[in-house]
Amino acid sequence: MKIAMIASEVSPFAKTGGLADVIGTLSVALERLGHEVCVIAPAYRCVLQSEFTLGESPIKLSVPVSDRQQEATVLQGTLGNGVLVYLIRADRYFDRESLYGTATGDYPDNAERFVFFCRAALELLRHQPVDVVHCHDWQTALAIVFLKTQTSRYLEMAGAKSVLTLHNLGFQGIFQPHDWHLLNLDAALFTPQFLEFYGNINFLKGALVLADKITTVSPSYAQEIMTAAQGFGLEGVVRPRAADLVGILNGVDYSLWNPWTDPFITPHYGEKSLSLKDECKRRLRRIFKLPDNNHSPVIGMISRLTAQKGFDLVEAIFDLLMQRDVQFVLLGNGEPRFEQFFGAAVTRYADRVGVRIAFDEPLAHQIEAGADLFLMPSLYEPCGLNQMFSLKYGTIPIVRAVGGLKDTVQQCDTDAETGTGFVFELYEAQALLDAIDRSLQVFHNQTAWTALQRRAMAMDFSWERSAKLYANLYRQLVN
Ligand code: ADP
Questions:
Q1: DSSP per residue over 113-172, as a string?
Q2: N or C: which end of the chain has fewer CB within 10 A?
Q3: CB environment 157-169: b (16+ within 10 A), e (fewer)
Q4: How many Cβ atoms are within 10 Å of 397's Cβ, its own excluded?
Q5: Nearest CA to 216 among 384, 379, 375?
Q6: For residue 168, which atom of ligand 1 is closest to its CA?
Q7: Alpha carbon of 376 to ligand 1 centroid (Å)
Q8: Helix (H) or strand (E) holding 271
Q9: pTM
């Protein structure tokens, strides 16, 4: 099958989170299964200034936005053996410091930027039609809406089927009605059955109604988004689509995340050479200028600093946590209130806490390798990648039983010698602290701890399995 992935991020070209990892790796995994895959993404400044070898496609695009035509060119890169990556170049929209906004907020013209991007992607596909258009999150949702409601404009793609993947329903692309003219859609679509959402325009809602199939990035999250607690107001739109909704767990790119081969860590280690992980821990402590307290476990976190990731709970327990014999390292950036909190925590607990407010890929690998425990107390978690990376590194995850965390980490039972991490249910500070205390108990039992690490490292979340599930889904549609 010919498949086009339309996405606002793709690793390694542009990344702010898990979405980029998924697009980069899933595309290559599908190609390995024998499909013809291309990726369409914006050519942001980080792409323009990167060292990737990019060609320029002869295709020139003229893209309708409101009553204007916007011109664009197309840069071309590759992934894997033959996944073509088309990067839509329109500097007016994408030659900016960040992908979606700055510390002061989203770019005010995000509606226009992503209307343009969706239209540009479809214009490109008119030149080389595909069987399946696979869109991801709100930024690309309109491509499905345009394709389904303006068939005469996209005749070349008349037979194409559409899939929408929800990586995070918390972001929907909601804009004020005065932006409606940008979309060039029939006014009949600005109604509650389609894109209207309490008087505003909701890009994601349009695709939720119109996509042929909808997927989420874990089976549990597919169930959770049908509830008021996690539907972000769209549960009533998702529920009628239940028959077309499926949860497919994200995979891990073990060519990048494997303690045997990881280029960012030394020494390398595996299940049978776990003592070498101690050296990774020493190096990690050195990076964060923490003393070599051999008896103290290091608890790691790598995350966007937002309430979604459970930082309210971490804040609430922090002083109590520091009464335990632990060291804590955090890599992340995001909401100023959390950046300030952890900045202050370093000052208060200088020899116990290390914090790096940044996005730093090598350091992320070094934390995975050097930490003993990995904390993900998320309020909600569509899939989550870091808990799966952690398992592979023998870095035991402490997670809340929600979304993909629930689907990938099983409660440790030392008597039964089962389980791969420490899981708590309620989004409450005490529940988190109890889970940490259980993990510390096992940590100090060397035999039980090593057995737990080995069980964790044996878990396999490679992409091949997930890619096959996506391919089956496409096949159902195409046949
Ligand atoms: P989300 O997409 O919700 O942010 P995921 O767990 O699905 O969360 O994916 C996050 C990805 O981004 C992982 O690959 C993680 O290692 C990476 N990441 C997050 N924050 C940072 C950071 N500050 N520095 C380096 N990598 C980060």
A1: HHHHHHHHHHHHHHHS--SEEEEEHHHHHHHHHHHHH-TTTTGGGTT-EEEEEES-TT--
A2: C
A3: beebbbbbbbbbb
A4: 25
A5: 384
A6: 3
A7: 12
A8: none
A9: 0.94
Per the prediction, the chain carries an average pLDDT of 97
Strands 68-79 and 83-89, by their bridges, are: antiparallel
Residue-wise pLDDT for 242-277, tens only, equals 999 999 999 999 999 999 999 999 999 999 999 999
The answer to whether residue 125 scores a pLDDT higher than 90 is: yes
Give the binding-site residues of ligand 1, using a 6 Å CB cut-off: 17-19, 21, 302-304, 331-333, 359-361, 364, 383-386
Q: Which of 115, 137, 31 lies closest to 81 in space, CA to CA?
A: 31
Q: Are 68 and 93 in contact (CB under 8 A)?
A: no
Which protein residue's CA is at the shortest distance from atom 13 of ligand 1? 18
Q: Angle at which helices 311-322 and 429-443 pack, to 10 degrees?
A: 50
Question: How high is the pLDDT of residue 104?
Answer: 86
In the numeric block, the tokens 């965390």 are attached to 405
Structure tokens at 173: 């692309």
The residue to mutate among 359, 363, 388, 466, having the most atoms of ligand 1 within 8 angstroms of its beta carbon, is 359
**Which residue(s) pair with 56 in the sheet?**
75
- How far does residue 303's CA lie from ligand 1's centre (Å)? 5
Ligand 1 center to 13 CA (angstroms): 15
| CA–centroid distance, residue 304 to ligand 1 (Å) | 7
The Cα 420–Cα 197 span in angstroms is 42
Query: Residue 400, SS3?
Result: strand
